[in-house]
UniProtKB/TrEMBL annotation:
Protein name: Fructose-1,6-bisphosphatase class 1
Family: Belongs to the FBPase class 1 family.
Residues spanning the membrane: none
Taxonomic source organism: Thermodesulfobium narugense DSM 14796
Record domain Fructose-1-6-bisphosphatase class I N-terminal: where: 8-191
A Gene Ontology biological process term: sucrose biosynthetic process
Self-association state and partner proteins as the record states: Homotetramer.
Principal subcellular localization: cytoplasm
EC number: 3.1.3.11
Cofactor note: Binds 2 magnesium ions per subunit.
Top-rank lineage group of the source organism: Bacteria
Amino acid sequence: MARIGIDLNRFILEEERQFPQATGSLSLALMSIENATKIISSRIRKAGLSDILGKIGKVNVQGEEVQKLDQLSNNWLIEHLSDSGEFYALASEEVDDAIFPEKGKNGKYVIALDPLDGSSNIDVNVNVGTIFSIYRKYCDGVENFFQEGYKQVAAGYVVYGSSTMLMYTTKNGTHGFTLDPSVGSYLLSHPYLKMPSRGKIYSINEGYSQRWDEPLKKYIDNLKSKNYSARYIGSMVADVHRTLLKGGIFAYPGDKKNPQGKLRLLYEAAPMSLLIEQAGGRATDGVNEILSIKATSLHQRTPVFMGSKEDIDELMDYMRG
Ligand code: AHM
Ligand code: MG
């Protein structure tokens, strides 16, 4: 079934057919994400100066309120996904509280989103992305989001780079699709992605190294002594995408100023960790596997270390002293 070039919709449906008990609800949910991200992709490609630099609250020449792309992406995703009826609840980086769509009363899933990750870089034309994480609804209320990461039923991201790519997993491998803008479809380009078991690249904001703990300093020094290359875009989707394809380690650690780091567990760390693990890699907060952490609030942060299995194993040796 993993034929290079097949359309994402077909791939989703064929994947679902392997589970006779499936109702089609997850497929519809995934397709609604697919459609929303195509709109975001096309808008990013066409973005004029006013979209990029526009400040929320300003009024444009048509007399409409100007919104920045991260706010627009948030609104499109929420509208699309709420309207699909598949989601009982949505959580977004851009919104304080969970949203319970009117049409989603019988929805089987909840979804956590980072609508436009890395958006602080957009005015310098750096890659940005959309991250999503889906859990099965098991109770009433916001508690549906407070499940361990390994309970995700699907996760993925879209990177709006030199081409637009969607990577996703339903825990049957990590698969990558590239948007063909001429036909408007995501086509399978990276089936059953397997990341190298060891890489040659480390990706971390080294500007904060004075605030790091000793074990982390020693670990990074050791990588330098082994001639690892440094690459840090400052846009998680782009940095993790490279790590998935080329191996190595991506990290956003906790430090003396921010013990929990910066990245959010529900819609940044957990979905990326599922993709990494499904591609043969490993993800940890420095003590525990990220997928074993149970969220206790929607926007909680966690330290993140993810990448090639042997690189993370070695990091953990340093962390344990
Ligand atoms: P954002 O969700 O506000 O865009 O912030 C998250 C981003 C990540 O994409 C990236 O990994 C990180 O912030 C970079 O932070 P820093 O500039 O501190 O290195
Ligand atoms: Mg983000």
